[in-house]
Amino acid sequence: MNHRSSRLGRRAFISASGAAVIGLPLFEAFDPKLARAASGTPRFIGFYVANGKHMAAWKPATDGADYALTPSLMPLSALKAKFSVITGLQNKGAMRQVGGDHARGTGSFFTCSNIHTASEISSGTPPNGISLDQVIADAVGKSSRIASLQLGLTNQGRDQGYGSEFIQNISFDKNGKFKPKTVQVGSAFDTLFQGFDPSASEADVERRRKLKASVLDFSVEQAKALSPTISRSDNLKLDQYLTSVRELEQRLQNDSGAGGAVCSGATKPSNPMAVPDQVKAMLDLMVLGLQCDATRVITYMLGNGGDGAINGFPWLGISDHHHAIAHHQNQQANFTKLMKVNLWEVEQLAYLLGKLDAIDEGGATLLDNTLVLYSSEISDGNRHNHDDLPVLLAGGSSLGVNSGQHLRYDKSPIASLFLSLIHAMGATSVTKFGDDGTATLPGIMA
Questions:
Q1: CA angle, corner 170, sides to 91 and 306, nearest 5?
Q2: Would 218 be classed as within a structural domain?
Q3: Strands 406-413 and 83-90, sheet pairing
Q4: For the chain, give me the number of helices (H) and strands (E)?
Q5: Which of 228, 240, 291, 395 is least surrounded by CB atoms within 10 angstroms?
Q6: Could you tell me the CATH number of the domain that includes residue 439?
Q7: Spatial distance between the Cα atoms of 253 and 274, rounded to a whole number of angstroms
Q8: Which H/E stretch holds residue 46?
Q9: Are strands 318-321 and 370-376 parallel, antiparallel or unpaired?
Q10: Parent domain of 369
């Protein structure tokens, strides 16, 4: 029997009750035609950062492919050909002069629609419009086990005039209702690889918590057993995958028991991990989730807007709250701190993009097959403006995206950019997005 030509089952199952099912990359050995088709499967990541940027250190001085990276963009230098910086876009949906700017900016971040107050909602007005990620999930998410995944760092913060859901979430369904995000690494792991069982007993939850490390060990051994039976190119994919799983396992060892609370209905515990470790563990999970096709659409919030942002950056030598720093009042001391924070944020993006770009999917990398949109709810933290937003679009070369540019616009709707991305993801029948996205944005597609 020629094992290399045999077709293998897609999933490796652990028979014990409550154990994990960890998907593998789609190997040629499963089905060569299917594997080649899957190599171009489009994915999407929406990456939110709070409270804007120090725009003088973010915005390039020149346009086109020959622009020089600014100080805030330097962590991305190795990937310059695979992303574009986009400036001059505005979010009309955030400009309604009611309530707080952070709530309006965050709530409309991916919807480009006005959000509404509690009294307006109670009278029958929809809370919001549908968000970009959910339109994309309707197009590509239904082919994976999890149509879309919402992740973040915290579920804290509120702003004047609106419910807290608008400053804490960026994903909203077709009825304008928010889709809550998961902030515990263990719970995100369970969602991706163990499933969610709200009826599980506390004994089941405890058993699952104790099995988490052994599940990964067992899955690694099962995956290794495939090695002699698959091709050289599949073995390269397998090696990349196992490396990612091991890195994740090391990070999860610091997340003591966080995955159990959501299944038992008990109060969700605080996350015991330091912020930098928690962020990287979530980014690792995001990559694995896309790589094994558990999901194709992910949003991630690196903190929330306003007072829901990160309170102190001791690993950067900064004790101030992010919101306070962003209100820089044109003081150089605040600019210096803000630039450190912005640089760290971009370093997290660079980490994510680097991991995506290291995964080969048969002639293209996972980054080439993934649109990664990075932005904030406002531009300048002192002005609270929703024009000239800091936007970065990475990946997507397999989808026809024009990368390696600084693209400058003059108060064009960010909703038009989103409409372009919706079309790139295959939903070409969508003709309007948000309040003012009536046409695609020129220059985005190659």
A1: 80
A2: no
A3: parallel
A4: 13, 11
A5: 228
A6: 3.40.720.10
A7: 13
A8: strand 43-49
A9: unpaired
A10: 44-183+273-446
> 263 lies in a domain?
no
Question: How many angstroms separate the first and last alpha carbons of the chain?
Answer: 47
pLDDT at residue 231, rounded to an integer: 78
CA distances from 254 to 134, 229, 257, 301 (A): 32, 35, 9, 21
One-letter amino acid for residue 444 of the chain? I
Residue 242 included in any domain: no
For residue 343, give the amino acid letter.
L
Closest CA to 417 of 157, 91, 130, 135: 91
Residue 371 is encoded by which pair of tokens?
A: 């649109």
Q: For the chain, how many structural domains are there in total?
A: 1
Give me the pLDDT at residue 224, please: 75
82 is a domain residue: yes
Nearest-angstrom CA–CA distance, 377 and 308: 13
Whole-angstrom Cα distance, residue 301 to residue 93?
19
Long-range CB contacts for residues 5-14, cutoff 8 Å, separation at least 24: 6/229, 7/31, 8/226, 8/229, 8/230, 12/219, 12/222, 12/223, 14/215, 14/218, 14/219
Query: Any bridge partners for residue 372, and if so which?
Result: 45, 394
Tokens 């701190």 label which residue?
Answer: 337
Q: Strands 297-302 and 11-12: what pairing? A: unpaired
Give the pLDDT confidence score for residue 253 in this predicted structure. Answer: 54
What is the identity of the amino acid at 223? A
The model carries a pTM of 0.81
